[in-house]
Amino acid sequence: MNDYEERIESLKERVSRLMAALEEVNFECQRLEIINSNLDFQLKEANRELNQNIAVLQALEEENEELKRKLK
After folding, report:
1. Whole-structure pTM value
2. Which of 10, 17, 19, 34 sits in a 20 to 30 Å window from 26, CA-based?
């Protein structure tokens, strides 16, 4: 094999490795997108629960204030 052919083969091998690395990066990106989506869902659910808890606490606070007024 002459120098030109060796360089071509070397470049083909590099391209092959780069393509494999790119596929790995794409796979990791997809995995991270799934994780991000799951975390986003969990955050929205936690916020919804937090808002519900705040509403319950506000209602209890109002009820306590009303009971205090009635006791006076």
Report:
1. 0.70
2. 10
Tell me what pLDDT residue 1 has.
Answer: 72
For 3-31, letters b (16+ CB in 10 Å) and e give eeeeeeeeeeeeeeeeeeeeeeeeeeeee
Angle at 69 between CA 68 and CA 72, to 5 degrees: 90
Radius of gyration over every alpha carbon of the chain, rounded to an integer in angstroms: 31
Q: How many CA atoms lie within 13 A of 9 on its CB side?
A: 6
Show Cβ contacts of residue 1 under 8 Å, excluding neighbours closer than 6 positions: 9
- CA 6 to CA 60: how far, in whole Å? 80
